[in-house]
Amino acid sequence: MALVALMCVALVFAMAGFCSYWSLQPVLQQAWQMNNVTAGWLSGAFFGGYVLTVPFLTAITDRVDARSVFICGAALSAAGLAGLAFMASGFWSALPWRVIAGAGMAGCYMPGLKVLTDRLPGTVPRARAVAFYTACFSAGTAASYALAGCALEWFGWRGAFLFAAAGPALAGIALAVLVSPGEPEAAAEVRSHVLDFRPVLRSRKTMSFIVAYAGHGAELFAMRSWVVPFLVFCFGSGAEFTLNATLLAALTSLVAVASSIGGAELALRVGSVRLISWVMLTTFALGAVVGFSSLLPFVVVAALCLVYSAAMQADSAVLTAGAVNTAPAGHRGATLAVHSMLGFSGSLFAPPLVGAVLDLAAPLGGTVAWGLAFVTIGSMGLMGFLAFVVLRRRVACQ
After folding, report:
1. Tell me, what's the pLDDT at 82?
2. Quick one: CA dihedral 189, 190, 195, 197, positive or negative?
3. What is the pTM of this model?
């Protein structure tokens, strides 16, 4: 349990800058004169860096200690955030640093999970460790939202990025000092090159969890990319309202921690497939309700956002644990690489897609535009669910 606790804390620190751009987006969008589509592309650029590097950075953990990869990823993430603080002055100057920060996150998140799974024996201990670790992704998201919002008030947006850069730097130092080196699991078959994902792609059971996670990831990060501007629209404008919106966004991520752990425990009782089906259908409906709620009292909008966020995270750990526990022997790192690559690929395109919906629907009024935007967000998870159902039926027919 000491290792699980350490890796959870390290992940939270590594994610200190994860939501910085999203928290600062209302300020940066005005300062850098970006429309919604441009702001969405800058949001998605982080996931572009993630997706470009995660196949190698995660798959290589089948051959080298994942601890070393995490340390390198943390250093890269800190460099990306420092670059945003010192070098960014608009879309094009910020773009490469967003990509670098995303690449750094690719070296931390799934390799950090691999640090755990390589050192924990047994399916149930791994499933519970995965639940706690993936739940801490939401805890890190919440902390990052709040940190950036408060740092904006204290230091301005450049200081907020620089302040966040200290988090991944401390996470890398902690792993270097406190986690002993280890060896990855031996493969059951001869490995070819490090990016050979064929054993994973041939496992339809594994891929069913991965494609569902892709829809889940697109929905989750589209929502997290736009929840602060949505709350600012509902709540008002100005620095005070932006701070309150970021703190509320942090709370929506914090409730997801308990939801993720609770969903994993419930799945042990009712079954993973049943829980995933319940959650993904429910979140589609909730997304539509949240989007068209902007005319309701703000306390109601806030409550709906909290419920939506909690529901969306209820299957996160279950999807990841399903992929880990069905991974071909010796290919757990490759499985997590495919899991992350597909899971975050949708996140690259989801924020600008929502931004495009907002811009195109703007003549219909803000309420309708945000309603259609959240319907689009919910549809991403629904598409993941449909792909999950198709692949599970093919597994049953084998």
Report:
1. 95
2. negative
3. 0.73
Contacts of 369 (CB under 8 A, 6+ apart): 357, 358, 361, 362
What type of residue is 184? P
139 contact partners, CB below 8 Å, separation of at least 6? 8, 12, 253, 254, 257
CB-CB contact of 261 with 132 (8 Å): yes
* pLDDT tens-place string over residues 326-362: 877 667 777 877 887 887 777 778 888 998 999 999 8
Q: Which amino acid is at 252?
A: T
Of 149, 132, 133, nearest to 23 by C-alpha is 149
Tokens of 234: 């509902």
**Phi-psi domain of 271 (left: phi exceeds 0; alpha: psi -120 through 50; beta: other):** left
**CB-CB contact of 118 with 126 (8 Å):** no
Whole-angstrom Cα Rg for the chain? 20
- The secondary structure of 280-343 as a DSSP string is HHHHHHHHHHHHT-TTS-HHHHHHHHHHHHHHHHTTHHHHHHHHHHTSPTT-HHHHHHHHHHHH
Query: Which tokens in the block code for residue 299?
Result: 């306390």
Statement: 2-179+197-397 belongs to CATH 3.30.365.10:
no
